[in-house]
Amino acid sequence: MKILIVIVPFLIALALGRTIIPYILFISYKKRLFDPLDPRKFHQQIIPRLGGVAFAPVQSCLFILSVVVLYKVNFVPLGLNTVEIFPMFTLLLCGMVILFLVGLADDLVSVNHRWKFYAQIFVASFFPLSGLWINDLYGIFFITYLPLWAGVPLTIFAVVLIINAVNLIDGIDGLCSGLIMVGCIFLGVLFTYYGAWLHAIFAFITAGVLVSFFYYNVFGAFKRKRRIFMGDTGSLTLGYSIAFLSISFAMNNDDIKPFSEGAIVTAFSTLIVPVFDVSRVLIVRWREKQPLFKPDRNHLHHKFLRSGMSHHQAMISILLLALFFCLFNFLAVHYISNNIVVLCDILIWLGFIGVWNLVESRKKKLREQKMQFLRD
């Protein structure tokens, strides 16, 4: 029966998303609030990009209601150290509100990328301020305990990196929402297993509202319903949410969950694909002396599309890759050291990208030969 604590909020979030998003679609078309057309983008028709407006309100309001009901009904004795845990969630919701407003402003009138970056650093500092920070590397690089002066800047850096990685990977239908949905379900199950009910509730609420959005984002056009994008309003708050869940799981704090040797590797396995991909893209831009934040078509989903995959095939392939890293790391940390698992992750990623570069190069060469043959 305890499983109802996470199942019911998940279903309510799914229903709320299913109810709210059609209204957002209606208002977007009524007020002509569309994603601007750009030669760099794949879509060449008008599509609203305010789907992310549904995320933060549903996450925040439903989470607060769930916690109040849980405490009033006393369905399960949580045994939480509320002085330790509640500040974390309070500042999480504050940060989500700030990013929601920044993202909404960017989707409607555009915001300078520097101001968005400053806002991300500001809200990232909320985590250490609330007592949530990476305080243990669990033996990675042979480091265990991290002092405050090292853990706090590392946490802020990690949060900003995750937010931007999630934002930048939002390139094809269903990819960003699918990755965060997989990550939230994965971490939600683990939090449930360890009895961290508040974190599990938040994870499943986030996953629930994303299921509804995923449907409209991916299948809307094929079911005679209008599609919708999440925009920066959605990607910024989702990045912040998954960063909170990952760092919470990685933190060595008995008030959150019991100690587990592979916590940090397991926690961040959900983010390997977006973080590794954005890191690879930035390295390529730096090596080619291109502006680091200039948009291009060098992300993983672009590579898949150039190889001949459809949008759906590329999206599903990347989601399966992310799921592979989650399951591989979850199982591997029980048998080998964290350092070896991290090394395996890097080698698998590099091998995968290397093979795909060869495939892409071969296909490009074949296309050039075909064009040359037709010209001759």
From TrEMBL:
It is a multi-pass membrane protein. The keyword Plastid does not apply. This is MraY family glycosyltransferase. The lineage of its organism: Bacteria, Pseudomonadati, Bacteroidota, Sphingobacteriia, Sphingobacteriales. The keyword Cell membrane applies. It is found in: Cell membrane. The chain crosses the membrane at residues 6-29, 50-73, 85-105, 117-134, 140-163, 175-194, 200-222, 234-251, 263-283, 314-334, 340-359. Keywords: Cell membrane, Membrane, Transferase, Transmembrane, Transmembrane helix. It is an enzyme of class 2 (transferase). It comes from the Bacteria.
